[in-house]
């Protein structure tokens, strides 16, 4: 038929057209995962439930066979696991045989099944390995391919029970793989966490979730997170930030293993918060909760992701989780007492040991004064509170930089000055609330005369202005934790003594000056 035809003509053509016969079988499991087999009276060997499809759709034919053979009326026919084609020289007619995953809300025991005795002698649930042993060779290959497909995301395409050769790209798309999902840990400028409320339960008795969802086949996890927050919240002008945590769940929970990525988003501005909307209709409400409230409101494993994700955000690290629990080698989430216990027991590999050890931020500060003894301070563009800082910054230890070299570089970058860096005045150990400790090396930059002060050139993207402050007024300008550090270093310089040890800006030994 090469030209356009009327529906009546097409019907007449199809009625006379030769077609292969079709069979549809069911892969049914009980609560323990065993497979239901039947022993048909009309042929040798065990078989799957199912049979030949009449002039009907395959799903209708399979449902009819389950009712007739086993009196199963509440079967939910799921996805197609395998399609096998046999040439007509096998049975005299070309045959297309399909296997579907079939789910029964409360799978009946084999003894309680009402068998169609003129066709079925017996029915029995057996483990996978035994089921494959009982089946005839051709059916065994077909069922083995269906079981492999059940563990993956593809449908097995077979010819006489053997995989049909496919293109290389198709081969990779059909490989068994875990599900991948992406979650957004969205915060606002007050440090609150966004928790979404759905109109339906998720199987764990709660309707609360973090934004996010399944990653599509063509997406990276980060792209999937961006799409989900756009669909769920209408957020299209917010970038998805860095990875905070990777979690995994075994196949027993969802039928397939799950790999979940947690990304940071925000902090959202008040305008962005006010603009939240629910375009896809899946969200009932959005709740901004303090971290502790969010953790208690969410399912336990999701609460773990929030807790350790926030720890990773604060410490610049990534949490490695398994079902929400930190892996023994996770850089984030292992309590100090548990880490010490693992170390004493020798239970950590060298790589895990380096990962779980607490990290320290290393920085430098350079103390400059003018000829009157006033202290040079700078105002950063990246602080919203108007507070000032001392010249300095982080040590690029990954580039092999020493503290003194970092001080020289920071003075050049921040002030545009090429001056010698004087002696070390102090090391200050600061215990941050985030858990990330900071050690700061304070160097003497010396006294700047009027000519040197006029030569100062600031990087405008980083620093907006500089000024000289009387030491007694530093508390009006600097962050509170920096003030005692500067006063201690001024005292060391005046006394001409060696460097001192500070903790949170205060000396840990009696002053010698």
Map the helices and strands.
Layout lengths: L6 H10 L4 E8 L6 E6 L9 E3 L5 H13 L5 E11 L1 H4 L3 E9 L16 E7 L1 H7 L2 H15 L4 E4 L2 E2 L4 H6 L5 E10 L4 E5 L10 E2 L2 E3 L6 H13 L6 E10 L1 H4 L3 E11 L1 H5 L10 E5 L1 H7 L2 H16 L3 E4 L2 E2 L9 H9 L5 H7 L3 E11 L4 E6 L11 E3 L8 H13 L8 E7 L6 E12 L1 H5 L8 E7 L13 H13 L4 E4 L2 E2 L6
Parallel strand pairs: 1-5, 4-7, 9-14, 13-16, 18-22, 21-24
Antiparallel strand pairs: 1-3, 2-6, 4-5, 7-8, 9-12, 10-11, 10-15, 13-14, 16-17, 18-20, 19-23, 21-22, 24-25
Give an overview of the whole structure:
It is a single chain. The protein is an alpha+beta fold. Helices cover 29% and strands 30% of the residues. The strands form 6 sheets. A 6-stranded mixed sheet has the order 3-1-5-4-7-8, sandwiched between helices. Strands 12-9-14-13-16-17 form a 6-stranded mixed sheet, sandwiched between helices. Strands 20-18-22-21-24-25 form a 6-stranded mixed sheet, with helices on both faces. Helix 4 packs antiparallel against helix 5 (137-151) and helix 10 runs antiparallel to helix 11. It starts with 6 loop residues before the first helix and ends in a 6-residue tail after the last strand. The relative contact order is 0.07. The mean pLDDT is 89.
């Amino acid at each position: 038929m090469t030209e356009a035809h009327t529906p009546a003509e097409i019907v007449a053509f199809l009625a006379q057209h030769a077609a292969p016969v079709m069979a549809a079988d069911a892969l049914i499991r009980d609560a323990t995962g065993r497979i239901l087999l039947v022993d048909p009276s009309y042929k040798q060997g065990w078989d799957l439930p199912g049979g030949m499809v009449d002039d009907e759709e395959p799903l209708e034919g399979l449902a009819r066979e389950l009712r007739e053979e086993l009196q199963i009326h509440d079967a939910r026919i799921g996805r197609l696991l395998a399609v096998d084609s046999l040439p007509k020289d096998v049975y005299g007619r070309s045959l297309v045989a399909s296997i579907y995953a079939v789910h029964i809300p409360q799978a009946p025991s084999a003894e309680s099944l009402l068998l169609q005795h003129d066709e079925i002698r017996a029915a029995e649930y057996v483990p996978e390995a035994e089921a494959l042993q009982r089946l005839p060779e051709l059916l065994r290959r077909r069922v083995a391919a269906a079981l492999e497909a059940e563990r993956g995301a593809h449908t097995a395409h077979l010819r006489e029970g053997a995989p049909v050769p496919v293109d290389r790209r198709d081969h990779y798309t059909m490989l068994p793989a875990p599900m991948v999902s992406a979650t957004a840990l969205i915060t606002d400028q007050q440090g609150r966490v966004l928790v979404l409320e759905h109109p339906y339960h998720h199987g764990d008795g709660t309707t609360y979730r973090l934004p996010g969802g399944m990653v599509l086949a063509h997406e990276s996890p980060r792209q999937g997170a961006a799409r989900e927050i756009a669909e769920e919240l209408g957020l299209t002008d917010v970038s998805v930030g860095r990875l905070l945590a990777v979690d995994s769940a075994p196949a027993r929970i969802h039928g397939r293993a799950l790999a979940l990525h947690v990304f940071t988003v925000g902090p959202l501005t008040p305008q962005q918060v006010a603009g939240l909307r629910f375009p896809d209709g899946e969200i009932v409400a959005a709740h901004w909760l303090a971290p502790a409230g969010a953790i208690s409101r969410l399912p336990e494993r999701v609460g773990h992701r929030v807790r350790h994700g926030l720890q990773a955000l604060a410490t610049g690290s990534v949490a490695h989780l398994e079902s929400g629990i930190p892996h023994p080698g996770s850089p984030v989430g292992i309590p100090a007492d548990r880490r010490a216990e693992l170390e004493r027991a020798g239970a950590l590999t060298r790589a895990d040991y380096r990962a779980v050890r607490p990290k320290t931020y290393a920085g430098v500060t350079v103390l400059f004064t003018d000829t009157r003894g006033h202290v040079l301070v700078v105002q950063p563009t990246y602080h919203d509170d108007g507070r000032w800082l001392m010249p300095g910054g982080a040590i690029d230890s990954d580039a092999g930089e020493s503290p003194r070299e970092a001080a020289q570089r920071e003075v050049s970058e921040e002030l545009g000055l090429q001056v010698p860096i004087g002696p070390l005045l102090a090391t200050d150990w600061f215990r941050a609330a985030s858990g990330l400790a900071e050690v700061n090396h304070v160097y003497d930059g010396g006294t700047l005369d009027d000519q040197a002060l006029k030569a100062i050139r600031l990087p405008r993207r980083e620093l907006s202005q500089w000024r000289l402050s009387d030491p007694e007024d530093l508390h009006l300008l600097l962050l509170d934790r920096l003030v005692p550090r500067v006063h201690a270093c001024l005292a060391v310089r005046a006394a001409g003594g060696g460097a001192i040890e500070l903790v949170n800006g205060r000396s840990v030994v009696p002053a010698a000056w």
